[in-house]
Amino acid sequence: MRYLPHMDVDRREMLGAIGVDSIDALYRDVPATALRTSPVEGLPHHMTELEVERLLGAMAAKNRAAGATPFFIGCGAYKHHVPASVDHIIQRGEFLTSYTPYQPEIAQGTLQYLFEFQSQVARLTGMEVANASMYDGSTAMTEAIFMAQRVTRRTRAIISAGVHPHYVDVARALTQFSDETLLIGTPELTDGRPGDDLDWILSELDERTSCVVVQNPNLFGHVADLSDLAAACHAKGALLVVVVTEVVSLGAIRAPGDMGADIVVGEGQSIGVGLNFGGPYLGLFACREKHVRQAPGRLCGETVDASGRRGFVLTLSTREQHIRREKATSNICTNSGLCALAFSIHLSLLGEAGLRQLASYNHARAVQVAERLAAVKGVRLVNGAFFNEFTLLLDRPSRAVVRDLGNKGVLAGVALDRLYPGVAGLENGVTLAVTETATDADIDALVRGFEELLSC
Amino acid sequence: MTVYFTKDHEWVRVEGANGTVGITDYAQSQLGDVVFVELPAVGKSVAQGDEAAVVESVKAASEVYAPVSGTVTAVNDALEAEPALVNSAAETDGWFLTLALANPAELEGLMDAAAYQAYVATLG
Amino acid sequence: MLNRQGRPTAAGDAADTATPETFTGHKGLDLNEPLIFEIGRTDRSGVDVPVPPRVTSRLGGLERLAPIELPGLSEPEAVRHYTRLSRKNYAIDMGLFPLGSCTMKHNPRLNEKMARLPGFADIHPLQPQDTVQGALELIDLVAHWLMTLTGMPAVAMSPKAGAHGELCGLMAIRAAHEARGDARKVVLCPESAHGTNPATAAFCGYKVEDIPATADGRVDLAALKSRLGPDVAAIMLTNPNTCGLFERDIIEIAEATHAAGAYFYCDGANFNAIVGKVRPGDLGIDAMHINLHKTFSTPHGGGGPGAGPVVFSEALAPFAPLPYVHKAHGRFELVEHRGEGDEHFASQTFGRMVAFHGQMGMFVRAASYMLSHGADGLMQAAEDAVLNANYILARLKDVMSPAFAGPCMHEALFDDGFLKDTGVTTLDFAKAMIDEGYHPMTMYFPLVVHGAMLIEPTETESKAALDEFIMAMRALAAAARRGEKERFTGAPHFAPVQRLDETRAARQPVLTYKAPTQMQAAQ
User: By residue range, what is the domain housing residue B24?
Assistant: First the structure.
């Protein structure tokens, strides 16, 4: 076996040094009825590299890769180009095969990039501090709801209808055994501002509210000014939690922090990480400095070593499970370190100028596509303001249209019925994202596809 | 003015109907460098033995229990900027909070300074 | 003496002259590296982005006008920055990484190559299911392996890490109790448990109580039996446990737990010791997470991402989370919503744990690892891991102090008894290991052992590598006894930085970079 260095002679010698005559003597505490002496049945035996490559390669070939097809799917995961150097760097063994930096003297590489990552996330979101990452955007959002509970000592969270329904489902599942109550908006494809339920939120907001959770741009692509909502929250002593699932948008639209958010959570997948069929992704978590001791997850901080040189350590760890146990702010242990590195490298390469240009390019292409599709018979563009994602209302149920376009080789967005099965008023909706990866030919194929399918 | 001590290493200095609460010098020496103190809201009522505050060192977080029942009347805001006061002056400037005593009779169950010193000596 | 080329002519010559301070602050290959904020510029970019076409903005007047202050690096600057940083890290690729309970084993590069196949890496979680049949098949394949290796009838694939898997298991347990109107309030958990166990139980609204331990580092069965009762919802137990020992009474523990109407959650962090040797399903457990990054060697990546699928017994399977992959009529289907599936599995689901379907990238790596080893190779890997740990225990027990008598499973636990009266602590000893070229073992965990040192070599190490490590540990133990205190208390002497001031970091947290001018303004 190519990954196991021992030869049988080594094993015999080592058993001799231990003073036993067989490996099973070391398993003597296992109940005899449960100890196996031959490999588990029903599974194949070892394979060569070539065999594994063939087998998994064949499985991969059954999938239609986003890069091989006109591709317009978003709704929480976005196809962006990632520079080659990002993947090269994260595969360096010193990053790939290191552990959580519990021994800071020999983990300054990891700690410094985490510090840089936290700083980048804070600036990008317009916040004061950020943690070293979480599992994904959805779990980060639920952690924000619990953090708001700790900060305000209140237990009613209001979640806007514009928040990704899977994120809402995660919050619902993870709060069901706690004392948190969730008030959840009902999505409507309101003309000009789909998923915007500001009036409802304001009607529910009161002195019992711990936080209001809104997504910007929201699931339907709508972009809103949250400043008034932030002021309304603060007037009632509640926190404003803003969810961002497309972080490239922060290169174009005002940062949640600048609009008054108290906690910003996000999915960082767009920068550096790739699609990966949904994971691993990168949960972003940023907040105000005054609340940082209530924050979940790992934090990296600057300090000095015994000779006065700058260095970095994990800090404020008394919030965490390995010390606080049942009183920890969260049960999480793992973060998404390598994805945070990929994000940080990609964002360092972009820099502010590159990010702004990328965001601007995404927006301009999305506007072009939206306007072309809006001119197709049977299609109505619902959005007024949007970034790189928008929602169309078709003259028929969208699920079949999206499926048929898929069969024609065009991945034309997400039929809202897939995300909201059975929700009235959404079955004809489809949400599309346009990024820098869509070519003119891709866009032509998309428009032509809609024209052909909707003409009959 | 009398100071009483608990087996959990809190002290309470009683003046009239009010008590000032902190942790003992022995407790701070066991904790090491204190990096943060979490204090309760003024106005909160605590029963004897309830968690009243949390004191954190780099690698540990320890609860501070109310030595007697009462209502929190003030907290030591100086600890927010300078948690090191707990190390340098545990039984004076490093106080945590003051309580309006609800049941002064509870004091009878606590130790005086001599009894506490003897107790600490048994801890090795 | 130097020869005419300036090279030393005899060993020791070079050391005769005192090491000068360098002008740059660099020390040969040990290069200082500033922060990106100190070397980047906001107007520089290492990515060429096309010029946007001119359109009328539809941002609704929400343009971001204020500077973001994100530094940019050209590609050569970026490659150099991160390469320099990487050299300040220890890694399995560099040497033995004996971090107990963390299972730092070799990460095969085939796994990385497979995970990057565009058919796996470049597919969207919401693509039409007809276009991702191979991806769903891959998830089903890993699920099949996990169920077969554990002897359990069901598995939830979506949890994103070990602690997330624990949460999945405990949520299913609570949902199962509630479904029959049984409001139990307590979860029992030994003091030696990973911190995530009590944190998870508390997250699910349970009160956590200790399970007493015996003097030989295992659960006290009699005490457990007397504590079990109608208020206990579950026990959480790691097996092999965090002392590196197999719980001998595990079948009786499971029986007693079930007899009391409670469920048995097993923390599967240490499954790597027994994979292929013992099927947890044969022991009577109801739920167990499997850290794919430990047992199936997906890279730890400096602290994640991980993956924590959870295997379930028949009793808990209906409460498993959504979504899941279901195979019917030769086609794979992703069941995403309540009421869509027609199976026993997840029929009374507690809901959804993550935005999409779990850690696909980790599933591919784990599949590659499983297929490479096969059922026979996985068994051999577990046996070698146990062999290596016992070899270390046997060769160090005369100079260090084992916490418990052997044999151990995949990790050997020592206490700090052998350092008594030397003035050297477990922390000092660990830091001296850094100078000898090793990552330290896990220290001060589990909490039940004084000054604990938990050594897990894994199956990755050859006998020669183990012998070298053992020699280093014996030499250090001898040095401590000889009173060479400075070797320890001043360590590490040869790392890129010396010991760091953690008190300062926690008292005045500096969590983001602030430019010198911002610092002045703040003061």
Answer: 2-105
